[in-house]
Amino acid sequence: MSERQTYAPDAALIERLADAALARMPAQFRALLEGVVVRVEDFAEADVLAELGIEDPFDLTGLYTGRPVGEQERMMPGELLPVIHLYRRPLLDEWAETGVGLEDLITHVIVHEVGHHFGFSDADMHAIEDAAG
């Protein structure tokens, strides 16, 4: 991202930042993400928010959906690949409110969405984020 950028990053830029974040992660963590798709959307869909009990769409910055990573070898024919959803508008709001670098924020969301599915501890996830920084 350019220091002179004066407009909100679009979905394509968020996706490039996510790809760069993934490339910086430790090899063991990247191996767990084989076949996982990253999708950038402005907000989570209303049914997703309702299922999670979230009223304000700005409260959800990311979500992992699909069969847990590590169980993919047992996927059924026609089953969709797992997806890490990054929600652009909530990410941008959090970026503006906290002052945390957007790249760091995207890395944090990816690590935590995947980490929760593996049962990683907060310390494990923090170490992965540090290694990717």
UniProtKB/TrEMBL annotation:
CDD domains: MMP_ACEL2062
One Pfam family from the record: Zincin_1
Entries under InterPro entries matching the protein: Zincin_1, Zincin_1_sf
Extent of the signal sequence: none
Record's protein name: Metallopeptidase family protein
Organism: Sphingomonas parva
